[in-house]
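Input record (one chain):
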Amino acid sequence: MNQLQKNNLATLSDFSEIALLKKNHAIHNHLQDILIETKQAVTSATIHLRLVSQITDTFSAIVSNNLNNVMKILTSLTLVLTIPTIIGGIYGMNVSLPFANSKGAFWLIAGGTVLLCILAIRYLKKKNLL
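The corresponding structure, as predicted from the sequence alone:
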């Protein structure tokens, strides 16, 4: 219960204890009814505040879980797309490499790269990472 609610309840309680109002039975009864309704309203507001807080936490957890799934997929795709980059970087160097003088070197290297990417995708799907 916050400070304002405590102050309101304290004021109503003090107001209901005034001797002049206690003498008038009708006013005293109405004031007691107001005090009871105010306590119930404060209790209801506190319960609803907790409920909203729990719902907010639940939505936050769901959004966080979805973000984790997206990040997992993006990381896996980055890993798969890194394979051709590494192979292209190695074959882009000015050193003697295997298949450098072969006529079908490009297609052999491209096919090997595609095969490695397919194997990486299968492995990631098997491990449920993609």
